[in-house]
Amino acid sequence: MRQYFCERLNPNFGYFYTVKNSLHKEQTQFQELEIIDTEEFGKVMLLDKITQVGEKNEYLYHEPMVHPALCAHPDPQSVCVIGAGDGGIMREVLRHNPSLAVQCELDPAVIDACKKYLPEISQGAFDNPNCRLQIGDGRKYIEETDDVFDTVIMDMTDPFGPSTMLYTQEFFQSIKNRLRDDNGYFVMHCESPIARPVAYQQILKTLKQVYKYQHVVYIYIQMYSVLWSIVISSDNENVPNISTDEISKRLAARGIENLKAYSPEVHHAMQVEYPYIQELRQGVDALPAITDAATTFQDEGAYEQADVPLRLEEV
Fold first, then answer.
1. In what helix (H) or strand (E) does residue 173 lie, and over which residues does it extend?
2. How many CB atoms neighbour CB 19 within 10 A?
3. Got the DSSP string for 105-134?
4. What are the Cα distances from residue 46, in Å, to 12, 83, 139?
5. Quick check: 150 and 78 in contact, CB under 8 A?
6. Class assignment of domain 3-53+302-314?
7. Which residues contact 238 (CB under 8 A, 6 or more apart)?
8. Buried b (16+ CB within 10 A) or exposed e, 177-212
9. pLDDT digits 0-9 by tens, 195-226
10. In what order do the strands lie in the sheet with 213-221?
11. What letter would DSSP give residue 74?
């Protein structure tokens, strides 16, 4: 018999992949963590039974989370990564040679498990002398630190549970307060405009209360099986306006090569929106922003149903 992991992206839509066996499973202080071995993705990390990262094609997510913003910045010397305990984002950040790269991870068990079972993703990033590991609440760190950053990149789980308070207007403002100047960027994923269009809209609405611009890049992520979105928020328009020639020069000057999901041409192509997504963005103002006092997304009921996957069914 083959085992299948089935995950719903909303109550009516989802995907599956086959599973060989479970390599590691534990209940951490914050969540259920499991590493499974699969035919399609190789090793995969699940948090609370939700797919987070897999070996195969992980660059489809990690490269666009980093390079569009850092290439648009003239000199990204200090970067903060919130979440992303698998190390893939930190790996890509370090390719830009920052003098300081802070990694904030709430759950140390995630880093330990990924270093042991998924070292191919971090490729030693956590041991780099320019990486400063900050174990604990990323929001608390941002609100209390004196560090300033050229870019903050947040890669967190979906907007419920441990990540609930990372999606609020107040926290987005705290991040802005830690950006060095108007050249700075805040990068985060903003869900799928197909599977979770309301969450996509409300994240953009919340960011709009704090930052002048929200530049969105759209990518297909195989391990999530859907069109995904990443939003780069700022008070400047460098992301859409930087030329392909300038991106090429910056990549070369920083010694970055052999990328698989990002290039100077792809930088601009990822920002082109389908007409239906333009319509979604036109409806953003009609929805409420997410605040510390009102953390509920309007499709929260759908989340509650969607994120209880059919676990390792035998067929």
1. helix 169-177
2. 21
3. ES-HHHHHHHHHH-HHHHTTGGGSTTEEEE
4. 21, 14, 23
5. yes
6. mainly beta
7. 72, 73, 183
8. ebbeeebbbbbbbbbbbbbbbbbbbbbbbbbbebbe
9. 999 999 999 999 999 999 999 999 999 999 99
10. 131-135, 100-105, 78-83, 151-155, 185-189, 226-234, 213-221
11. S
Q: Which SS3 state, helix, strand or coil, does residue 161 take?
A: helix
User: How do residues 47-90 score in pLDDT, each as one tens digit?
Assistant: 999 999 999 999 999 999 999 999 999 999 999 999 999 999 99
Q: What is the token pair recorded at 42?
A: 């190789």
Structure tokens at 173: 């403002």
User: Which residues, including other chains, have CB under 8 Å from residue 26's CB and lie 6 or more apart?
Assistant: 32, 33, 34, 109, 113
Could you say which DSSP state residue 179 is in? B
What is the token pair recorded at 184?
Answer: 């700075």
Contact 204, 281 (CB under 8 A): yes
CATH number assigned to the domain with residue range 59-300, chosen from the 4 options 3.30.2350.10, 1.10.490.160, 3.40.50.2300, 3.40.50.150: 3.40.50.150
**Residues written for the chain:** 315
Fold match between domain 3-53+302-314 and domain 59-300: no
Question: 48, 86, 150, 155: which one is catalytic?
Answer: 155
Query: Contact, 35 vs 13, CB < 8 A?
Result: no
CA distances from 5 to 53, 59, 161, 304 (A): 14, 22, 22, 18
Q: What is the CA radius of gyration of the chain?
A: 19
Q: Are strands 32-38 and 13-27 parallel, antiparallel or unpaired?
A: antiparallel
Domain limits of the chain? 3-53+302-314, 59-300
Q: Is 155 a catalytic residue?
A: yes
pTM of the full predicted structure?
0.94
3-state secondary structure of 276: helix
The residue among 61, 10, 6 whose CA lies nearest residue 198 is: 10
